[in-house]
């Protein structure tokens, strides 16, 4: 492969590990001529000792000490675990060698292919081999290892179901798999109750027919259970195993051994299955790669998509990245030429896609009394009522319970701090122009700002049209305004909608007059946007509300009382004005899944209400009438599909201060919409003018992903570049930045404060081609800190999902 081909890959090739180290201990021996040497990966997380060590193989272990077995060795005076990587005739170490203490088991659990993959993953993510091997090889269970399971009787496979017929490139993709070739594709799946599992199962069957193995990774156990049933029907009994953490250590190890011993050639599982020892891998597939469950929470924090892409490249296997939506990372693979798109014809999309109706206009609330009572626009109520006549309906709510927050009554944007900052001014100065870019995308402190025009809504409803209310007892710190903490607001202080009134609104003056320094120059209620930069006034580059250096952090309500405070600078003040238009803020509370279910239950007393979320996830619901209230990702599958759906609080998904907010919003909406019957009605409570909403209306995730990638390339964010973060105490982060030898083209952003515990974070950005150099530099600097036993740990994360 040429250097140009390597540059197109999203993952850098990794050199073999340095094998010159040697294990030493008391009683060490010099290797005699012909005496075998074992190179061992010691279970030691210290980065400066991340290399194999040589040990002598005693004569008694000559047969059992084979590459891939678990061993026990002496290391730094302690007895530790390790994996025997390879045998050699001699050692490059000039001193004495310690012998192996014992072979734990003769089972060769670490294959050469997985060992090489683990080394590559560790180097790509600036981690250690020991940390990756903990993820790759499950703990030993002696009883399961001693079992000899009977071979399952093969079942006849059914005829091809034709799940790929709707895709013009589908037939050629299956043909390539069946003939042992290695196509790489990004698949935009069609919505519908038939689901995604059957096309994936057909791709696995084609791979098995070609004589090679297959590996499929999905976000969670619910997806595994859904696909396991389909795989059993399409592939036949015993052709695959399902691996999840919920199986328990013994059963999971038992199934893992079936794969290792070649008794199953296909694996279906969650992110830990990316290292499953599938022999002769022919297909590596991942479903819904934008789900954050694919990102490992343990060091070195690898992402399943990147590990599978690296594994497919190393083994010459095919790669399939599937989802209803498309991520910017998958789009980058297409743009580089590493993968090709598989999309359905627009005619096929129109047949099965839902009929999407955005409901972001306040006029909807005035159409009937039910809409006013439950804070839902009439179009949403109509969709629920009509859908319940023929089957179950789905209501997606972004959160489980309540999230106190504040929004502007006039312009309905989430409230921002308009007071001079106490802590973030320095962060604004440090980051400066480095991470400001396209107007309206970045705030002055480097955090993503809410896009202009997000979430028109009824006054007091926090920028969205969901089920919102101010519960009793949610008072202000000022007893004269809202009845004080723990007391409901006085009736004369409330407007007609049950929310605190503002000056000029129905219900009297809800807020005292504010000093002029908080106002907007010119008329109140102005655009609040800088004409020159297009960014909110008061942010660097704008001309706004509280002048140069305004904080613009998101406002919230402190737990325990109703005093508004800024989440960035921590200021608490009874007098606030909108950082965009100058109007006073009105507090509101987003009602999540639990309260939504209660409200809908009262509105539809004869219909059973089912909830699915963190407190309990439903897998399936029947065809009968039912109201299903679920949080994103927990939506159960309905037999025959849902008759209708309502997606609440679109602003809550799109208005988050996160690089992936729009992408994540489209992904969650499309995953829910895909569960509907063809052409069923879907109501999304968000502004129709937003690009994310337009992507859902047209069912066009491709254009939205391409736009996301272009925006990130312009701003210098992943995946257009490689980026790493350093998180730790302020002194530790700054010390590491001073010592690390970064590539010449590297840009350091920050450090900036993270959280309220004194932690800081710095971001380092390099071109994609320099990602391997950056990872090596960070690993070396961490090794130096570990060698001198630095007291404060600096967490290094390469290409993290969350940058800020």
UniProtKB/TrEMBL annotation:
<feature type="binding site">
    <location>
        <position position="581"/>
    </location>
    <ligand>
        <name>Zn(2+) 1</name>
    </ligand>
</feature>
<dbReference type="Pfam" id="PF17764">
    <property type="entry name" value="PriA_3primeBD"/>
</dbReference>
<comment type="similarity">
    <text>Belongs to the helicase family. PriA subfamily.</text>
</comment>
<dbReference type="InterPro" id="IPR041222">
    <property type="entry name" value="PriA_3primeBD"/>
</dbReference>
<dbReference type="InterPro" id="IPR027417">
    <property type="entry name" value="P-loop_NTPase"/>
</dbReference>
<feature type="binding site">
    <location>
        <position position="408"/>
    </location>
    <ligand>
        <name>Zn(2+) 1</name>
    </ligand>
</feature>
<feature type="region of interest" description="Disordered">
    <location>
        <begin position="1"/>
        <end position="33"/>
    </location>
</feature>
<feature type="binding site">
    <location>
        <position position="569"/>
    </location>
    <ligand>
        <name>Zn(2+) 2</name>
    </ligand>
</feature>
<feature type="compositionally biased region" description="Low complexity">
    <location>
        <begin position="529"/>
        <end position="538"/>
    </location>
</feature>
<keyword id="KW-0238">DNA-binding</keyword>
<feature type="binding site">
    <location>
        <position position="566"/>
    </location>
    <ligand>
        <name>Zn(2+) 2</name>
    </ligand>
</feature>
<keyword id="KW-0639">Primosome</keyword>
<feature type="region of interest" description="Disordered">
    <location>
        <begin position="460"/>
        <end position="547"/>
    </location>
</feature>
<feature type="binding site">
    <location>
        <position position="578"/>
    </location>
    <ligand>
        <name>Zn(2+) 1</name>
    </ligand>
</feature>
<comment type="function">
    <text>Initiates the restart of stalled replication forks, which reloads the replicative helicase on sites other than the origin of replication. Recognizes and binds to abandoned replication forks and remodels them to uncover a helicase loading site. Promotes assembly of the primosome at these replication forks.</text>
</comment>
<comment type="subunit">
    <text>Component of the replication restart primosome.</text>
</comment>
<feature type="binding site">
    <location>
        <position position="417"/>
    </location>
    <ligand>
        <name>Zn(2+) 2</name>
    </ligand>
</feature>
<keyword id="KW-0547">Nucleotide-binding</keyword>
<dbReference type="InterPro" id="IPR042115">
    <property type="entry name" value="PriA_3primeBD_sf"/>
</dbReference>
<dbReference type="InterPro" id="IPR005259">
    <property type="entry name" value="PriA"/>
</dbReference>
<keyword id="KW-0235">DNA replication</keyword>
<keyword id="KW-0862">Zinc</keyword>
<feature type="domain" description="Primosomal protein N' 3' DNA-binding">
    <location>
        <begin position="39"/>
        <end position="138"/>
    </location>
</feature>
<feature type="binding site">
    <location>
        <position position="411"/>
    </location>
    <ligand>
        <name>Zn(2+) 1</name>
    </ligand>
</feature>
<feature type="region of interest" description="Disordered">
    <location>
        <begin position="140"/>
        <end position="164"/>
    </location>
</feature>
<keyword id="KW-0479">Metal-binding</keyword>
<keyword id="KW-0067">ATP-binding</keyword>
<protein>
    <recommendedName>
        <fullName>Probable replication restart protein PriA</fullName>
    </recommendedName>
</protein>
């Amino acid at each position: 492969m040429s250097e140009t081909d390597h540059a197109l890959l999203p993952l850098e090739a990794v050199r073999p590990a340095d094998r010159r180290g040697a294990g030493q201990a008391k009683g060490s021996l010099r290797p005699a001529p012909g005496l075998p040497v074992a190179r061992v990966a010691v279970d030691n997380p210290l980065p400066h000792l991340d290399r194999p060590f040589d040990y002598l193989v005693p004569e008694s272990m000559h047969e059992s000490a084979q590459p891939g077995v678990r061993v026990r060795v002496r290391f730094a005076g302690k007895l530790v675990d390790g994996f025997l990587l390879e045998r050699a005739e001699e050692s490059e170490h000039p001193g004495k060698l310690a012998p192996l203490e014992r072979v734990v088991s003769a089972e060769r659990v670490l294959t050469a292919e997985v060992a090489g993959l683990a080394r590559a993953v560790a180097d790509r993510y600036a981690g250690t081999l020991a940390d990756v091997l903990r993820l790759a090889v499950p703990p030993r269970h002696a009883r399961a290892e001693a079992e000899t399971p009977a071979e399952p009787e093969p079942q006849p496979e059914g005829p091809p179901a034709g799940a790929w017929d709707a895709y013009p490139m589908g037939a050629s993709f299956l043909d390539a798999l069946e003939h042992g070739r290695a196509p790489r594709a990004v698949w935009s799946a069609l919505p519908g109750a038939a689901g995604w599992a059957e096309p994936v199962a057909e791709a696995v069957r084609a791979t098995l027919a070609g004589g090679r193995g297959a590996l499929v990774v999905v976000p969670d156990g619910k997806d595994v259970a859904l696909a396991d049933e389909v795989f059993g029907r399409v592939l036949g009994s015993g052709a695959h195993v399902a691996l999840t953490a919920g199986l328990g250590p013994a059963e999971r190890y038992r199934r893992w051994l079936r794969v290792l011993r070649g008794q199953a050639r296909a694996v279906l599982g969650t992110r830990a299955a990316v290292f499953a020892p599938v022999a002769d891998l022919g297909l590596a597939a991942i479903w819904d790669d934008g789900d954050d469950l694919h990102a490992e929470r343990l060091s070195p924090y690898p992402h399943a998509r990147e590990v599978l892409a690296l594994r497919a490249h190393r083994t010459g296997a095919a790669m399939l990245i599937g989802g209803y939506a498309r991520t910017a990372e998958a789009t980058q693979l297409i743009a580089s030429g590493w993968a090709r798109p598989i999309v359905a014809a627009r005619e096929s999309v129109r047949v099965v896609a839902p009929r999407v109706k955005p409901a972001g206009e306040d006029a909807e609330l005035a159409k009937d009394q039910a809409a006013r009572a439950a804070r839902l626009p009439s179009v949403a109520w109509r969709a629920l009522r009509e859908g319940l006549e023929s089957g179950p309906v789905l209501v997606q709510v972004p959160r489980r319970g309540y999230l106190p927050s504040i929004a502007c009554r006039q312009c309905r944007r989430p409230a921002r701090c308009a007071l001079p900052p106490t802590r973030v001014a320095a962060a604004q100065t440090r980051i400066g122009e480095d991470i400001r870019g396209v107007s309206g995308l970045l705030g002055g402190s480097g955090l993503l700002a809410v896009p202009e025009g997000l979430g028109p809504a009824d006054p007091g409803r926090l920028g969205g049209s969901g089920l919102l209310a101010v519960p009793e007892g949610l008072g202000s710190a000022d007893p004269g305004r809202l009845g004080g903490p723990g007391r409901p607001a006085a009736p004369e202080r409330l407007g007609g909608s049950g929310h605190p009134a503002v000056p000029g609104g129905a219900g009297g003056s809800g807020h005292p007059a504010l000093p002029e320094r908080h106002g907007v120059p010119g008329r109140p209620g102005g655009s609040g946007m800088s004409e020159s930069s297009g960014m909110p006034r008061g942010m660097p580059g704008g001309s706004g509300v509280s002048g140069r250096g305004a904080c613009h952090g998101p406002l919230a309500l402190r737990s325990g009382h109703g005093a508004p405070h800024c989440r960035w600078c921590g200021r608490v003040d009874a007098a606030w004005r909108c950082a965009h238009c100058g109007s006073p803020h009105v507090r509101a509370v987003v009602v999540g899944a639990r309260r939504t279910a209660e409200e809908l239950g009262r509105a539809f007393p004869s219909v059973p209400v089912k909830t699915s979320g963190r407190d309990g996830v439903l897998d399936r619901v029947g065809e009968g009438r039912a109201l299903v209230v679920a949080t994103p990702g927990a939506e159960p599958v309905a037999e025959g599909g849902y008759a209708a759906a309502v997606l609440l609080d679109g602003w809550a998904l799109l208005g988050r201060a996160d690089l992936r907010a729009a992408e994540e919003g489209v992904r969650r909406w499309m995953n829910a919409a895909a569960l509907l019957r063809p052409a069923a009605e879907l109501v999304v409570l968000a502004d129709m003018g937003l690009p994310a909403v337009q992507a859902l209306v047209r069912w066009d995730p491709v254009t939205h992903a391409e736009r996301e990638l272009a925006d990130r390339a312009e701003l210098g964010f992943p995946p257009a570049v490689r980026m790493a973060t350093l998180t730790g105490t302020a002194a530790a982060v700054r010390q590491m930045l001073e010592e690390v030898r970064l590539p010449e083209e590297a840009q350091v952003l920050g450090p900036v404060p993270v959280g309220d515990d004194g932690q800081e974070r710095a971001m380092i950005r390099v071109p994609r081609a320099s990602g391997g150099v950056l990872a090596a530099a960070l690993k070396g600097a961490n090794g130096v800190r570990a060698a001198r036993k630095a007291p404060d740990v600096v967490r290094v994360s390469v290409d993290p999902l969350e940058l800020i």
